[in-house]
Write a structure and sequence with these properties.
alpha+beta; seven-stranded mixed sheet; six-stranded antiparallel sheet; 643 residues
Length: 643
């Protein structure tokens, strides 16, 4: 029973190949029967070769014709083959039946080869699917219970043993191990993880057992989002492919009209005999079909997407792979993008009536509701202090945050924002803030108002200096981008001028836009697009989302990026490694180059074969070999990007 099952599975998985092999065998036997003069046997074998080799193409062509009212290249091939066979029967020149069968065979072989080529790309992409575990080991009342991933809830505690896949995103509660995150981030070296660190579904646990708390639904995990986006990328055609698709529909109609004219006019215009006329018209149908042109783009772009995914670069669709290669200007957010975003409280300075602890506790009360890295740093610094959470908290992106704590209004933010609530800023504190900002620190002002409804009258309590570390790869990335010929590199930030220029100087960016609100970043991107057309934006926060959406190519940091930024962006850097931007641009430029080469080869073959057909130098099988050979050639050419 095992062998029939294996045979059935093989024929199902390799149906195109089996059909091509049977077609080839029947063609050979039919030719041999003709050679021996056994016409009856030949007329049984050759139609079977036509039917088996051409069934799939005929089915697809007729489906397109009746459902979409469009002519398909597959249908043109079948018409040409049947036309050759009919001409052979009419003229009793049976070698023409063999020519038609060869056309069907080569078309079937080409289809099988193209299928294998595309399967290679799909396998590379769909290997992500194997990274999702089916079950998780959940701790329930001190006992381990294995449940399906779909049943996991936020707050569940799961156990992951050495060598197992992490089943879902979570936070480590206890344990220490090294995790292989190559499938998610593209990093080849394992990363050490311990209590408090975030882990991602699909990563491979090393030698240590881990207890993990689920902090987001399993369907929202990073690997599930990656798979969803990659599937979406496979189905969405980029603009260039959409143009080729539209071109093919009109082109196929032109071919049919031209074929009819070529099959009827030459005997009257140039005195051709009808056999030659019809044969040349059928050959024309074959060699003029744009199969190679249709295969010039998508295999290349899908290969580029697969290559990027292996390196920790997620392209949401092929259009973005095209666009990233055309980028002339690029804008970077500062916090969390050029810097690590893992900021810490560097210094707390209070006015005389308050202590440093008072300043920290008051700020933590409202910042505990913020997702901004600065807010998290303040809450972390106030961790051992007894602070009270605020109510009616409202965050103003790019400016600050306000709330009510212990019946007093609390204001935390930059100097411009806090000035709206206070009478004046203490001169001594202002001088200290300027000094800290010149050193590259971010300064947060803290004030409170005993009368929450009053428009002004708040008291300044002090300032908190935040230090953010510049990413080690940032300067190298900027240098590489300049070498790639990027004409303009700018930095956009809501931070003050001094801090912004300090970071820009460290990484090698000359043009800085500071103290920007989200809508200001949007305006800058629009101005850059007016000057440079194709502009990329790199960011990670909620306040970057409008600019990411406006940019020709939005690039988000995969680990530190907010959900809004990840959803809005077109490309995601899974490991937050800025140097991958240069890799993505190189991939984009290579894909453009290969697509252009493929289009040139495809059009070149069509023109060469058309000229050969009109000069009478090629027959139908040679035309088919040239046509299908060019199709396979450009498909394989596109797969070069997998390397």
């Amino acid at each position: 029973m095992l062998y029939p099952q294996r045979f059935t599975q093989f024929t199902r998985e390799h149906a195109d190949t089996v059909a091509a092999l049977l077609c080839g065998l029947l063609l050979f036997l039919g030719w041999f029967a003709l050679h021996l003069g056994a016409l009856e046997l030949a007329f049984l074998l050759l139609p079977a070769a036509y039917l088996i080799g051409g069934y799939e193409s005929a089915r697809e062509g007729l489906t397109t014709l009746f459902k979409e009212k469009e002519l398909d290249v597959d249908l043109l091939m079948i018409v040409a083959a049947i036309g050759a066979a009919s001409l052979g029967l009419w003229r009793r020149e049976y070698h023409l039946i063999i020519d038609g069968a060869i056309l069907i065979l080569i078309f079937a072989i080409s289809g099988a080869l193209e299928g294998y080529a595309m399967q290679r790309t799909e396998r590379s992409i769909r290997s992500l699917m194997s990274l999702t575990a089916d079950t998780a080991r959940v701790l329930h009342q001190g006992r381990e219970e294995e449940i399906p991933i779909s049943q996991l809830k936020v707050g569940d505690e799961i156990v992951v043993k050495p060598g197992e896949l992490i089943p879902t995103d979570g936070i480590i509660l206890s344990g220490y191990s090294t995790l292989n995150q190559a499938a998610i981030t593209g990093e080849s070296l394992p990363v050490e993880k311990t209590m408090g660190a975030e882990v991602f579904a699909g990563t491979l646990n090393g030698y240590g057992a881990l207890q993990i708390k689920v902090h987001k639904p399993a369907q929202s995990s990073l690997i599930v989002r990656v798979i969803r986006l990659v599937e979406q990328a496979q189905t969405e055609a980029p603009p260039s492919q959409e143009f080729i698709d539209r071109f093919e529909k009109g082109y196929a109609k032109v071919i049919v009209v031209a074929g009819i004219l070529l099959a009827t006019l030459p005997p009257f215009l140039w005195g051709w005999d009808w056999e030659t006329t019809i044969y040349r018209a059928l050959t024309f149908l074959v060699v003029a079909s744009p199969c190679a042109l249709m295969a010039a783009i998508m295999p290349t772009l899908l290969s580029g997407i697969a290559n990027g995914a292996r390196q920790g670069i997620l392209f949401k669709n092929g259009a973005q792979l095209e666009k990233i290669g055309k980028v002339r200007a690029i804008a970077f957010d500062k916090t969390g993008t050029l810097t690590t975003g893992q900021v810490q409280v560097f210094q707390v300075i209070s006015v005389s009536e308050y202590t440093q602890a008072d300043v920290l506790k008051t700020a933590a009360g409202v910042e505990s509701y913020s997702e901004h890295p600065i807010g998290k740093a303040i809450v972390q610094a106030a961790g051992n202090l007894d602070w009270v959470g605020a109510v009616q908290v409202q965050a103003i992106p790019g400016r600050g945050i306000v709330g009510i704590a212990q019946e007093q209004q609390v204001i935390v933010g930059n100097a411009v924002f806090v000035q709206q609530y206070v009478t004046n800023l203490p001169d001594k504190l202002r001088e200290m803030a300027q000094s800290l900002e010149q050193e590259g620190k971010t300064v947060v002002w803290v004030a409170k108002n005993p009368t929450p409804l009053a428009l002004r009258g708040a008291d300044v309590m002090g300032i908190i200096a935040i230090a953010d570390e510049v990413r080690v790869e940032a300067a190298v990335t900027i240098t590489r981008l300049k070498k790639l010929g990027i004409e303009q590199i700018v930095m956009l930030t809501g931070d003050n001028q001094e801090t912004a220029y300090s970071v820009a100087k460290a990484v090698g960016i000359d043009r800085v836009y500071a103290q920007l609100l989200p809508e200001d970043k949007l305006d800058v991107i629009r101005r850059l697009q007016q000057q440079y057309q194709t502009v990329a934006m790199v960011g990670d926060g909620i306040n970057d989302a409008p600019a990411l959406a406006q940019a020709s190519v939005g690039i988000a940091m995969g680990i530190s990026g907010s959900d809004v930024a990840l959803e809005t962006a077109d490309i995601i850097l899974m490991a937050d490694r800025l140097e991958k931007i240069a890799v993505a641009m190189h991939l984009g430029r290579r894909s453009q180059s290969i697509v252009k080469q493929n289009i040139f080869v495809a059009l070149g073959f069509i023109m060469l074969l058309l000229v050969g057909n009109f000069l009478g130098n090629i027959n139908l099988p040679i035309g088919v070999i040239g046509h299908e050979g060019s199709t396979v050639l450009v498909t394989l050419s596109g797969l070069r990007l997998l390397k």
